[in-house]
């Protein structure tokens, strides 16, 4: 068996291709609270670095003219963790103000009887997103039964 890599790397930021940089910056800022750290809208190289409390979490690159595809290899969905189901519901309320398309109605458990759960929705380019809490969803429905909810939206 191969030896594990040491140190084990942690996920840094995630980069997403978007079709309209300004629209995506506004979505991630207003709907999820990310702050612009650096933005370039000049010429062909349009991008934004977004974060929270000065820490880079998400980069947006305007270099796509298509739509998100669940049918090709690549990103399945991007997930954001919060501390509680109440915080998930607070994010949901803000998203509803922005007419976001949800995969399920309300908070759902990750699987039947699972403590973790969240909301599942798409950004303006159709990129699948999740906001979840590690506990507190024990009594929420699991639309996919025992299958992991986040894998089937």
UniProtKB/TrEMBL annotation:
Keywords: Metal-binding. CDD domains: VOC (cd06587). Residues 10-134 form the VOC domain. It comes from the Bacteria. GO terms for molecular function: lactoylglutathione lyase activity; metal ion binding. It holds the Pfam family Glyoxalase. InterPro entries: Fosfomycin_Res_Enzymes, Glyas_Bleomycin-R_OHBP_Dase, Glyas_Fos-R_dOase_dom, Glyoxalase_1_CS, VOC_core. This is Glyoxalase.
């Amino acid at each position: 068996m191969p030896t594990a890599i040491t140190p084990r790397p942690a996920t840094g930021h995630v980069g997403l291709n978007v079709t309209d940089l300004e629209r995506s910056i506004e979505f991630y800022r207003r709907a999820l609270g990310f702050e612009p750290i650096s933005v370039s809208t000049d010429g062909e190289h349009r991008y934004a670095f977004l974060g929270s409390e000065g820490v880079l979490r998400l980069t947006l690159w305007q270099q796509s003219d298509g739509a998100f595809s669940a049918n090709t290899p690549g990103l399945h969905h991007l997930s954001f963790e919060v501390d509680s189901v109440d915080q998930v519901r607070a994010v949901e309320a803000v998203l509803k103000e922005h007419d976001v398309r949800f995969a399920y109605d309300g908070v759902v458990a990750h699987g039947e009887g699972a403590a973790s759960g969240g909301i599942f929705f798409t950004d303006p380019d159709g990129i699948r997103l999740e906001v979840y809490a590690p506990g507190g969803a024990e009594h929420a429905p699991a639309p996919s039964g025992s299958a992991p909810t986040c894998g089937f939206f």
